[in-house]
Design a protein that fits this description.
This protein is mainly beta. Among the domains are: 62 residues, Beta Complex (Tie2 ligand-binding domain fold), CATH 2.170.300; 46 residues, Ribbon (Laminin); 33 residues, Ribbon (Laminin). The strands form 19 sheets. Strands 1-2 form a two-stranded antiparallel ribbon. A two-stranded antiparallel ribbon has the order 3-4. The longest helix is centred in the N-terminal third of the chain and has 9 residues. The chain starts with a helix and ends in a 6-residue tail after the last strand. Its main location: secreted. It is found in: Secreted. GO terms for molecular function: integrin binding.
């Protein structure tokens, strides 16, 4: 019974389930009746909908059918999958044993996750010490394995985020306990401006020079305000000082990036970059930006004024454009309007063309998704100009904030 229910959800309104297989209605095809045999989209529009984040159609591992990717499966293994065929589990097959992850792990989206006691890209190496001893050697004084900043491999920590120079890197120590990024007001691995330029960084903690104080030596002792009062004034009603978009000195915020008039306000609370889409269009061309929020023209609505109030499509046409490859309308997490999904406002983190993305998957720095310096796009940070890094935490601009 449960199989019929599940399969019924997959071929929703486009077929019936018969003994675990879909029998598609006229005009539909595919294992889950997810492909329309007649397409109302232009080839250009269809291909655009099939492009991955690198603008490659179906990741060169499938073909595009009416805006949906059909992944290569010539051998019937089903190892290539994903919305854009971005996952290729053939990468996990061990060349010698021809087993996935050497038979000692599980493969997810082309990456092996090894069982205890095994390591290597394809779980091909066995550790000569027991798992409990390996974990003990990798455990930091605070009880976290590799301080949650690295991977434990056979009793040794491999710290994440190695410096391009090949030296220790920004994160180092036997158990990855030292994080030099904690010494920087704005993390920039290519700059020596540790501790706001007024101190020495020792294992992630700043020892300030005479005349300076604060966690990152940002507070001049000549300032009449205490460090706490300075931070309080810079924070205002925001969650973080200068809203996480500026540098606080003696109770005043300097917003960054330098010279970018889109970030402003007493506590840098206004960020008009949030009104732009990934192509840089402000409010979809149908509104104006006010302190990081779009004010839409008449006839348009949405966070970026991307939805027209009037729709020239039939309900059936609209719904067909809102169905993901599995045949579910907006992944069950939103409503359909004029061929586009409007994701549930109650779950702020749900996004994507078919509401199939979770913005909580995007990297954070200092507690902020994409460090507030980029847009979370389906689990990956798309950084604004001048910023780089998995969490857009690295400033690469010519002028240091």
């Amino acid at each position: 019974t449960s199989l019929v229910v599940v399969m019924g959800a997959f071929n929703k309104s486009h077929g019936t389930c018969d003994c675990g297989k879909c029998r598609c209605d006229a005009g539909w095809s595919g294992d889950a009746c997810q492909y329309p045999t007649k397409c109302d989209l232009t080839k250009k529009k269809s291909n655009q909908m099939c492009k991955n984040s690198q603008d490659v159609i179906c990741s060169n591992a499938g073909t595009c059918h009416c805006g949906r990717c059909k992944c290569d499966d010539s051998d019937g293994s089903g190892l290539v999958y994903g919305k854009f065929c971005e996952c290729d589990d053939r990468e996990c097959i061990d060349d010698e044993t021809e087993e996935i992850c050497g038979g000692h792990g599980k493969c997810y989206c082309g990456n092996c996750y090894c069982e205890a006691g095994w390591h290597g890209d394809k779980c091909e190496f066995q550790c000569d010490i027991p798992p409990w001893e390996s974990k003990r050697r990798c455990t930091a004084p605070d009880g976290r394995v590799c301080s949650n900043r690295g991977t434990c491999v056979c009793g040794e920590c491999s710290c994440h985020d190695v410096d391009p120079t090949g030296d220790w890197g920004d994160i180092h120590g036997d158990t990855c306990e030292c994080d030099e990024r904690d010494c920087r007001a704005v993390y920039d691995r290519y700059s020596d401006d540790f501790c706001s330029g007024h101190g020495q960084c020792n294992c992630g903690r700043c020892d300030c020079k005479a005349g300076w104080s604060g966690e990152k030596c940002e507070q001049p002792r000549s300032c009449p305000l205490s460090a706490e009062e300075s931070v309080r004034r810079c924070q205002g009603g925001a969650e973080r000082p200068c809203s996480g978009r500026g540098k606080c000195e003696c109770g005043k915020c300097t917003c960054y990036p330098p010279g970018d008039r889109r970030v402003y306000g007493k506590t840098c609370e206004c960020d008009d970059r949030r009104c732009e889409d990934l192509e840089g269009v402000v409010c979809g061309g149908h509104g104006t930006c006010s302190c990081g929020h779009c004010v839409c023209e008449r006839g348009w609505f949405g966070t970026l004024c991307q939805h027209p109030r009037k729709c020239n499509m039939t309900e059936e046409q609209s719904r067909s454009l809102c169905e993901s490859a599995d045949g579910i309308l907006c992944s069950g997490k939103g409503s359909c309007h004029c061929g586009k999904c409007i994701c549930s406002a109650e779950e702020w983190y749900i996004s994507g063309e078919f509401c199939d993305c979770d913005d909580r998957d995007c990297d954070k720095h200092d507690g902020l998704i994409c460090t507030g310096n980029g847009i979370c796009s389906c689990g990956s940070c798309e950084c604004w100009d001048g910023w780089n890094g998995n969490a857009c935490e690295i400033w690469l601009g010519t002028e240091y904030p």
